[in-house]
Amino acid sequence: MNGEKRKLLINDYCDAVGDLLASDIVQQMRQYPHHRTVSTFWHSVYVSYLTYRLCGRLRLSQREAARAALLHDFYLYNWYLEKHAEYHIWYHPKEAVKNAELYFEPLTAKQKNMILSHMWPLFVEPPKSKEAYVLTLADKIAATKDLIGLSGTFTDMYAQIEKELKRRGAFENRS
Ligand SMILES: [Fe+2]
Ligand SMILES: [Fe+2]
Known about the structure:
CATH topology: Hypothetical protein af1432
Number of helices: 8
Largest sheet: 2 strands, antiparallel
Bound molecules: fe (ii) ion
Shape: globular
Order of helices and strands: HHEEHHHHHH
């Protein structure tokens, strides 16, 4: 991808998810390990970016899907330490939906189903849209990269995304 195209892509992606990405509560996901040493934040941003790209290629609802993808694991606890009545694998998508609506705007029906079905085929809620299938695919690609130590390939792209968000005035209150 040439520099100009990359710049446009980063700009459009920041338009779609920048408010969520720069929020303190989403940034807090940096403290939770998701797949071994990979944080929930890092995993979620990569899944969101992949979902955005794939939905663009397939001419699907890019913004709606990328926002749901960024919040698909928005469960805000250390699942290695904190246990719940239900196993994490079934519990965390429901917690992510609850937190998404608590901290941000109400989800659309499509976004809610995307988050609840992202563990498909392991979870009982089936995907009901093409965007939901894209998210399950992006999640599996990112999870595989997390587990084999290849998540770092996203570092350069994320640095450029964060640079663009800073240029727009995000993170000004960050200590
Ligand atoms: Fe998940
Ligand atoms: Fe995930």
